[in-house]
């Protein structure tokens, strides 16, 4: 089949890049080219920003219930096209089709939830110091938002950003990851069909993200940048945004500890570890990166986890029964291999996996066997750096104080997991962990109604919940002297 062709969405129109250049999107499971998209540059980004700026006055002035009506139309459009969106997501990202479908549905819920929140952007009346004066506080949209989204959740990461932005009255320019631009462009089709005013949502695809990112940073019409991706790139964007004091929200890297105490339900802990670690082949910012197990239950837990991991089926996301898909590209595979090699050179032992999968069905993709390591020490790269792959190191601990200290010994602070049936321990450990999110006897954190985000070098701001609106709104203080 010939590859599909897509265009940029700028100012309500589908268009080619100014350069006329295009780039290919490949399936990481097969290496096949599934589509080509325009290769936008700074000129295209500028046009998209100007279109968003032109649309801002109209969109921000719409009554809240009208914006909500548009957002629900987009939600309905996504839900009517779930199967198509999921298939394209699996083609460009590789994750199992069931996971892709779950992502599309979860992402759509952010639009549904924030459509309701449009009505709750409240202001304040503050008691004045004078009988003649009134103090009013308004909350107004920040303006044009540049949203930069990652490849690991190419659908839901977009809706998580545009939903609060649209609810607040902002307009948006989206730059999806170069590996996975198709989900964004299909969402653009649904937005067009929903009838949103031209320029409210714009989409630029590019294989040269530095040039587009530079335009986002330097163009004064952009008032906020929302980014999900690596801590390294997040720091670069934050430094650049400082030149104009642009608003930023950042959801960056993580290195989640997964802590199993001796009173835990071990079967639930094993199931939670598998879901957290191996979803999307371990390519999630909140996946379990370090598994700490209390010594007295370490052997029993490890045996059950090894058994569960060996049952995982690796393969093409379109194949029935596949539970783990490929890594996104060669660079991702190399990083996983380097972490495993470093661990083995320093004394770690492979309990299962530990190698690239080859042979029929695997040779053209980036498949790595789900892997567990033990005899792991804190000086190994896998304990210090984010692996972003299907590899989990297992370590033991003796006391609460010890595991809290080791869990916090990282510059990251996104998510942490605890398995225990002791309420006192739940409170003590949750409060002591230096993370923006803590899951207790749970392994799934991203829901529309809760604030998703990290602390330390894992980011700034929150996505989800009423808290997610704050990053898209400014406070305006009015001091009004009344006529006599």
TrEMBL record:
PROSITE patterns: ALDEHYDE_DEHYDR_CYS. The keyword GTP-binding does not apply. Gene3D superfamilies: Aldehyde Dehydrogenase, Chain A, domain 1, Aldehyde Dehydrogenase, Chain A, domain 2. Keywords: Oxidoreductase. GO terms for molecular function: glutarate-semialdehyde dehydrogenase (NADP+) activity; succinate-semialdehyde dehydrogenase (NADP+) activity. InterPro entries: Ald_DH/histidinol_DH, Ald_DH_C, Ald_DH_CS_CYS, Ald_DH_N, Aldehyde_DH_dom, Aldehyde_DH_NAD(P), Aldehyde_DH_Superfamily, Succ_semiAld_DH. Pfam families: Aldedh. Residues 14-477 form the Aldehyde dehydrogenase domain. Belongs to the aldehyde dehydrogenase family. This is Aldehyde dehydrogenase. It comes from Symbiobacterium terraclitae.
């Amino acid at each position: 089949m010939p590859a599909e062709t897509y265009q940029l969405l700028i100012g309500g129109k589908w268009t080619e890049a100014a350069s006329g250049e295009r780039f290919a999107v490949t399936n990481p499971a097969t290496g096949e080219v599934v589509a080509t998209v325009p290769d936008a540059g700074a000129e295209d980004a500028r046009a998209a920003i100007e279109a968003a700026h032109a649309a801002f006055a109209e969109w921000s002035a719409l009554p809240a219930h009208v914006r909500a009506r548009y957002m629900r139309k987009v939600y309905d459009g996504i839900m009517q096209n779930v199967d198509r969106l999921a298939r394209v997501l699996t083609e460009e990202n590789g994750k199992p089709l069931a996971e892709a479908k779950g992502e599309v549905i979860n992402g759509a819920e952010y639009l549904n939830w924030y459509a309701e929140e449009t009505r709750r952007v409240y202001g304040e009346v503050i008691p004045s110091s004078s009988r003649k004066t009134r103090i009013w506080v308004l909350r107004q949209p920040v303006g044009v938002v540049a949203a930069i989204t990652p490849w690991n959740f190419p659908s839901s990461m977009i809706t998580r950003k545009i939903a609060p932005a649209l609810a607040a009255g902002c307009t948006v320019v989206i730059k999806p990851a170069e590996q996975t631009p198709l989900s964004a462009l299909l969402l653009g089709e649904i937005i067009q069909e929903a009838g949103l005013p031209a320029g409210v949502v714009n989409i630029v695809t590019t294989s040269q993200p530095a040039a587009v990112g530079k335009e986002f940073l330097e163009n004064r019409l952009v008032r906020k940048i929302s980014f999900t991706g690596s801590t390294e790139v997040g720091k670069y964007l934050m430094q650049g945004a400082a030149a104009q004091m642009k608003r930023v929200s950042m959801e960056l890297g993580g290195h989640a500890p997964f802590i199993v105490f001796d009173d835990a339900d071990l079967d639930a802990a094993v199931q939670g570890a598998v879901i957290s670690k191996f979803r999307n082949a371990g390519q999630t910012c909140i996946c379990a990166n370090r598994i700490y197990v209390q010594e007295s239950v370490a052997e029993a837990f490890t045996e059950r986890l090894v058994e569960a991991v060996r049952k995982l089926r690796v393969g093409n996301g379109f194949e029935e029964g596949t539970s783990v898909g490929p890594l996104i590209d060669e660079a991702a595979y190399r990083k996983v291999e380097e972490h495993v090699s470093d661990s083995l050179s320093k004394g770690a032992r492979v309990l299962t996996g530990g190698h690239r999968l080859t042979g029929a069905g695997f040779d053209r993709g980036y498949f790595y066997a789900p892997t567990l390591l033990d005899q792991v020490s804190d000086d190994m790269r896998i304990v210090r750096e984010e692996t972003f792959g299907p590899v989990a190191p297992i370590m033991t601990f003796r006391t609460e104080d010890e595991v809290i200290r080791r869990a916090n010994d990282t510059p990251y602070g996104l998510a942490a997991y605890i398995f225990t049936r002791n309420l006192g321990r739940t409170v003590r450990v949750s409060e002591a962990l230096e993370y923006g999110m803590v899951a207790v006897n749970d392994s799934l954190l991203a829901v529309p109604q809760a604030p998703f985000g990290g602390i330390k070098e894992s980011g700034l701001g929150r996505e989800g919940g009423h808290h997610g609106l704050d990053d898209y709104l400014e406070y305006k203080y009015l001091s009004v002297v009344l006529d006599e």
